Amino acid sequence: MQPQISIVVPIYNVEKYLRQCLDSIVNQTYKDLEIILVDDGSPDSCGAICDEYAAKDERIVVIHKENAGVSVARNDGIERAAGEWIMFVDPDDWLELDCCEQVLRITGKVDCEIIYFQREENNEDGSIAKHFPAIDSRMLSGEDLQKLQLNALADYIQSLGFESTAPWGKLYRRSFLMEYSCKFPVGIKRRQDVIFNLYCLEHLKRGYYYDRVGYHYRRNNNSICRGYNRNMLDILLGFYAKAEEFVIKYHKGDKCRERMLGVLAIKIHGDLRNTLFFNSAGYMPVKEYQIYMMMYYTDPSIKKYLNKPKISDFHSFRDKLSYVLISNRHIYLYYYFCASIMRLKLIVRSIKCRQRTIKR
């Protein structure tokens, strides 16, 4: 009998959190699940933990494979899935125990291909880091879906009040993914989920937002997404090339989306700023920073779209100021502005740590 939901979990080097994640899945109040654990060649005990859970629960399928990255792992899960719906869960996160039951009720009431639901952000110890205000549950079509796609393209992940670019926090109709060959891009190491959801939104005619917290996203400071990586420039330019490829394929000449590519160029600079130049390990010397930035801004795609946006396309004051400085090539001024902000943050953090120590 076909399961209603296939839950796909790509797993790599998360033994510290994996049991909490799996417990939240196998103990769902809704039982008609297929649970696909993709062990992506994890070097720790994750593979053994997966086998342990599979031995106790016949709903669990374990795929052991050589490490090929999260995109391949999720794509393998999609290919193996037999459920009417597919849900993605990251292995350091967890679900509310009634998540599947509550979200599946919506599928019987509305006709749609993707159901979005709310998440809560938690610290590593599980405490609440961010809780999102309630917004009305509703159908999503037309203008809403276009706004979701534009915001995803510009890297504004919190769109219409919920997370729209991550694969988690959603139910995808499996036949929809198969019909339009929606897969995670292979060959890029960051933000594969953004590209995946851009293609999904391109073909999506009806979605639904359900205002209920079902997913807990853990802010994992040891995540590969947060770590220092000297190759970050090439990694993010690879992502940018995929975003441009999407626009050229489906919306060539669309001025609005070209502006969003310009916004994305500034947002990517922000990632470079945080992971390479200004981080807790220290500051990159300004001359080396300038070399990196010259490499970034001489990239043909970045040059092509950088001056496309309007100032109103940026949501925050920092992004607006960054755009003014960067688009006018005031790289030194931008460097010192960011360095000053980072130093101020470190001072505030140090003061807070001292206050906590005194209280103890």
What do these coordinates show?
The protein has 360 residues and is α/β, with parallel strands linked by helices. The chain has 2 domains: 5-218, Alpha-Beta Complex (Spore Coat Polysaccharide Biosynthesis Protein SpsA, Chain A), CATH 3.90.550.10; 232-356, no CATH class. Helices cover 48% and strands 18% of the residues. The chain has helices at residues 15-26, 46-56, 70-80, 99-107, 143-153, 174-179, 192-203, 232-251, 255-277, 286-297, 300-305, 317-327, 331-359; strands at residues 5-11, 33-40, 60-65, 85-88, 94-95, 114-122, 128-130, 138-140, 158-159, 162-163, 170-173, 207-218, 278-279, 282-283. Strands 1, 2, 3, 4, 5, 6, 7, 8, 11 and 12 form a 10-stranded mixed sheet that branches. The longest helix has 29 residues, at 331-359. The model has no long low-confidence stretch (mean pLDDT 87).
Brief summary of the model shown:
This protein is of the alpha/beta class and 360 residues long. 48% of the residues lie in helices and 18% in strands.
List low-confidence stretches: none
From the alpha carbons, calculate the radius of gyration and give it in angstroms.
Answer: 21 Å
CA-CA gap between termini: 58 Å
Element pattern in H and E: EHEHEHEEHEEEHEEEHHEHHEEHHHH
Rounded mean pLDDT is 87
* Sheet/helix structural class: alpha/beta
Which key phrases capture this entry?
single chain; 360 residues; alpha/beta; Spore Coat Polysaccharide Biosynthesis Protein SpsA, Chain A; 2 domains; ten-stranded mixed β-sheet; two-stranded antiparallel sheet; 14 strands; 48% helix
